[in-house]
Amino acid sequence: MKILVMCQDYPSDKNKYAMSYVHTRNINYQFYGHEVYVLSFSAERSYSYQGVKVFSEKDLPKKEFSEAEVVLSHAPNLKNHVRLLLQIKNQQVVFFIHGHEVLKKYKDYPQEYPWKRSNKLKEFLHRAYDEIKISSLKYLFKIIGLRNDVKFVFVSKWMKQQFAKNVDFKFENKYISTIIPNASHNSFLTKSHRKIENCLGDFITIRPLDDSKYGVDLVVNFALANPCYQIHLYGKGNYFKHNEKPRNIVWHDCFIEQSEIPGLLDKYKAALMPTRYDSQGVMMCEMACYGIPLVTTDMEITKEMLLGFDNVYLLKESDFSKKFNIKVEEMIEEKRSTAKLRFDAKTLIGQEIQFFTDGQVN
Question: Per its record, what are the GO molecular function terms (predicted)?
C-alpha cells in the first residue's frame, strides 16, 4: 500500500523529539512492506530520516497525492493540513487524533510552570484561537468528508471522549472511527528488564523537564519525601535554573534515543514516570511492556493504557509528596507476555491497514 503521511513536524538529526510517535508508525509500515512518503510542513527542504523519505511542501510532487492509496493526517491543523485537504477529492483520508489539535491549552492542559506562563494578552489570544480552531475543525472535517472517504483513528478511548466533548462531533455511518494506540518499540517487547547487580540508582525518570504535564516537580517532591532513594533524571530543559535540585536526584541533561532506553532501564531498579495529562503515554507503556517496576499517576488514561500490568504502581498526585511505603527491591517485575501484546507493532499495523482498507478492525 502506498501511504502519504501529513504532519506539522517530523524528526530529524537536529530535532529527534518532533512527533516521534508518527515516525515510529512509519518505520513499522515500511518494515511490513508498505511504501511511505512524509509531508512535513515544518521542513524547509526534503531529507531522509532513518530510511523514511520526508518532503517539504514545496518539494512534494503533486502525483504523491493522486497516487497515494491512503492519506494520513496526523494531528490535523487549520493552517496546513486542512488547507491542502480541501483541495483534494476522491481520496481515502484518515485523521489521526493525538490530542493537542482538539484540546484547549488553558482549559484542558495543566497550568504551566510559573517561568513559562504567557502574559495576559498572549493567553487571551491563545484562548480565542483555540475556540476558532476547534469550532472550525468540526465543519471542515465534514466538508472534507463530502469529497473523500474519511475515517478517524484515536490512540485511546479517553482521547476519543475528549474529542467528542470539545469538537461536538457525532460519528455516523459516514464517519467511522477506531481506537488503535501507538505501538511500543520492538525492543521493549522482545526483551525484558534484567536488573544489573550494581545499579546506577533506584529510580529512573525520562522526561522533558519544562512541560508541567510530565510532572518533573512531582519527581522532585518524591525525592524530597524519600531521601533514601536515588533518582536519575534524563531529559533536557531549564527546570533546575528556576528550582533547587534535591541531593538525591542526579540530572543527565541529554536526549536518549528510543533504541537505547531498554539497556538503560536495566541499570535501575524501577521507573518513576508521573504524568498530569496524556492521550496515551507511549514511553510509560513501553516501560510497562519491558517489565521494569513502574510508578506513575493514578488517572483515567493510565488505568486504561496500563490495565493488566502487574508491575505498575499508581499514585495519586498528592502521594508523590509522601513516603513511598513499598521497598523498591520488593516491587514486582512483569514477566508475562499477555498484557504487552496490546502494543505489538505487527498486530497494530495489521489493524491499521485493515481499517484503511475496509473500515474494520479485528
Answer: transferase activity
Structural domain count, the chain:
2
CA angle centred on 78, ends 72 and 81, rounded to 5°:
25
Q: Are residues 221 and 333 in the same domain?
A: yes
Residue 152, beta-bridge partner list:
95, 177
Same domain, 206 and 68: no
The CATH number of the domain holding residue 145 is 3.40.50.2000
| Same domain, yes or no: 88 and 212 | no
Same domain, 90 and 220: no
Does residue 133 sit in the same domain as residue 120? yes
Same domain, 274 and 210: yes
For residue 121, what pLDDT is reported? 85
Phi/psi at 169 (5° precision): -105, 125
Whole-model pTM: value is: 0.87
319: its cell numbers: 502521594
Chain position carrying cell 520492538: 186
Cβ–Cβ < 8 Å for 11, 17: yes
The residue segments making up the domain with residue 83 are 2-183+344-358
**Are residues 174 and 33 part of one domain?**
yes
What pLDDT does 173 receive? 66
- In the predicted model, residues of the chain with pLDDT beneath 50 are none
Residues 133 and 312: their CA atoms lie apart, in Å, by 37
Q: For residue 200, what is its C-alpha cell? A: 546506577
β-strand pairing of 47-49 with 52-55: antiparallel
